Amino acid sequence: MHLSCPFCRLPLHRHEASGGAYCDKKHHFDRAPEGYLDLIPGKHPPSEGESRALMRSRRHWLEQGALNPLADALAALLPAERGELIVLGAGEGYLCRALAARRSDWHYAGIERARNAVFAAAKAQPEAMFVLADPKQAPLQAGSAMALLREVDNKTKLTELPTLLAPGGLLILISQGPRHHWQLRSHINPDAKEHPPLWPKLDELENRVQQRCHFEVTLDRSERELMLAISPLAWRASNQSRHDYLQEGEPRLEHDYLISLWQRAKD
User: Where does the chain show beta strands of DSSP type E?
Assistant: First the structure.
């Protein structure tokens, strides 16, 4: 991963002995004891990121295989020749770990701005590289990334992503499909309507693949509680609606992802 300084945008050099980094203007950044590189200057908001209890619950749910079909679909997109995939918005590192289990020939790295999440990611996968930084302003050198993965929505700005790719580099985008979390969505809003798939558009890159990854998972009461805690859909629900879903909600949940693969032209 070729990083740039968050202050001056000059290339960062790694200090082999300490694991830290520095630029030619003498800006220094430390490697945390947990193994990640801290590129967010100053103090961090103490409330940023999920609680440890919620993160543990999410990890347990994921490690039980809840998103295995998504991980399988993403792993199948990686080319046969080995390289490095950088996950922008890596969270607590689930996708990095899941892809490493399926495609160990590739190297993995993640950028995440929540300190407790990147802490957990680095601890669970010490062989990967994790950086504490804002993935929306990824501290990567222009034209350096072999492969990037980013989960997006209709508010995500995509204009900077192509500039980060090396010639021939790949960009994998994940967005929500029309049926994503449909049982929860329709419970909270009985008038919810299914809309056509909305695919990202990037004029600068060639669209190589568009595929829909749709599957169902079963939920018990504790897993419905987890969905209420992590889904933005549920944050807008009334207390009564949340209570009803927790007690009597459907024991299944649809996941619907739109996966698109883009490539920069080879110069």
Answer: 13-14, 21-22, 28-29, 37-38, 84-88, 107-112, 129-132, 145-151, 165-176, 206-218, 252-263
